[in-house]
Amino acid sequence: MSTAVTQEQIEQVVIESLQTFGADPEEIRPDVTFEALDIDSLDLAELSQIVHEQFGVELKGSDVAEIKTVDDAVRLIASRA
Amino acid sequence: MNGREGCALVTGASGGIGSAIASALGGDGWPVGVNFCGGEKAASETVKRIEDRGGRALAVRADITVPEESEQLFATLEEHFGRVLVLVNNAGVRSDDLAVSLSDSDWGSVIDTNLTAAFRTTRRALRGMIRERFGRVINIASVVGPRANAGQANYAASKAGLIGMTRTVAVEVARRGVTVNAIAPGLIETDMTADLDGGLMEAVPARRAGRPEEVAACASFLASEQAGYVTGSTLYVDGGLGA
C-alpha cells in the first residue's frame, strides 16, 4: 500500500458512495453485507469506477463478485492502492 | 433548451442521417460532438449550421473502430463540453454481397463498425450517464436485420445485433435514469442508399423514401426528458416497410 492513501480514506469514499447509491447511513457498518444494504451489481460497478478515479485501483467483475461486505471492499481496495 | 450539464455525441455525423440528428440535437440545446472519420467538410458544415442557429458544436475526427481513437473522442468532448449524456451510435457502413461470396473482410469490417464500435462507445458513455443519473443512448439500427434484404447478411447481422444489445443494456441501466433505444430507419434518402435498386421503393407502403430529418425528429424525442419512460424499444421509421 502506498503512503498516499490510508485505509480511513478508502473507507470514507466507500461509505460516501454507498450513501449515494441509497444505502441507509445508519446501517452501514464494516460487517454488513451489500445485499442487506440493497446494493446491487450495478452499484458495485459504479463503486469500481469511483475507486479507479480516486485511487487508481482496478477492480474487475470477478473481484467484485468476491466481495460481500463493506469491510471486504475496503480491504481489497487497500491491498491494491 | 435542456438544463443538463453535458453534451451529445453523434458518431458518423458527416453522413446524411448523422448530420440531421446532430443538427436536431443542437437545436434542442445540446452542445454536440460531431464525429467524422472521412467527411471533414460535411462535418464542418454541420457544425456551422448548428452554430448559425446559436448552438454549440465541435467536429472531432476519430475512427471509432480503433479503441484509442474512440477514447480520445470522449476525452476531447469531456474537455470541451462535459460528460456525454446523449450518445447516438449512428456510424455505419455497408459492404454488400451474397452470403455465398461475402468475404471475411467485408463481414468483419461491417460488424466492427456497426456493432463492436457502438458497444465500445456505449460502454464508455454509460459510466458518465450512470453517475449523472441521466443518459440517453440511441442506436441507429435498420429495418434490415429484423427484415431480410438479400446481399446484406453482414449488415443485417450487425443491425439485428444492435437491437439485441439495445434491449439488454436498457434493462441493465434503467434504474439509473438512463434509457437505451434503437431507431430502425427504412429507405432514407442519403449517399449511402443512392445506389440501391429502385425496385425497393415498390415494397415501401408509403411509396417514397424517408428524409434524414424524419429520423432526426425521432432521435430528438428519444433524447428528450419526456421520453424518460421509453427504453429498450426500437422505433421504426420506414414508411411501413417493416410492418
Kindly describe this structure:
- The complex is a heterodimer of chains A (81) and B (243).
- Chain A has one domain (7-80): Orthogonal Bundle (Non-ribosomal Peptide Synthetase Peptidyl Carrier Protein, Chain A).
- Helix content of chain A is 57%, strand content 0%.
- Chain A is built from 4 helices and no strands.
- Chain B is 42% helix and 16% strand.
- Chain B has one domain: NAD(P)-binding Rossmann-like Domain (Rossmann fold, 3-Layer(aba) Sandwich), CATH 3.40.50.
- Chain B has a 7-stranded parallel sheet with strand order 3-2-1-4-5-6-7, with helices on both faces.
- Chain B starts with 6 loop residues before the first strand and ends in a 6-residue tail after the last strand.
- In chain B, strand 1 (7-10), helix 1 and strand 2 form a beta-alpha-beta unit.
- Which oligomerization state do the chains in this entry correspond to? heterodimer
Strand order of the largest sheet of chain B: 3-2-1-4-5-6-7
Number of helices of chain B: 6
**CA-to-CA gap between the ends of chain A?**
5 Å
Assign the CATH superfamily of chain B.
NAD(P)-binding Rossmann-like Domain
Describe the protein's topology.
The complex is a heterodimer of chains A (81) and B (243).
Chain A: H1 7-20, H2 41-55, H3 61-66, H4 70-80
Helix pairs in contact in A: 1-2, 1-4
Chain B: E1 7-10, H1 16-27, E2 32-36, H2 40-52, E3 57-61, H3 67-81, E4 84-89, H4 104-132, E5 135-140, H5 153-173, E6 178-185, H6 212-223, E7 234-237
Parallel strand pairs in B: 1-2, 1-4, 2-3, 4-5, 5-6, 6-7
Descriptive keywords:
A: 81 residues; mainly alpha; Non-ribosomal Peptide Synthetase Peptidyl Carrier Protein, Chain A; B: 243 residues; alpha/beta; Rossmann fold; 6 helices
What would a concise description of this structure say?
By secondary structure, chain A is mostly helical. Chain A contains four helices and no strands. The model of chain A has no long low-confidence stretch (mean pLDDT 89).
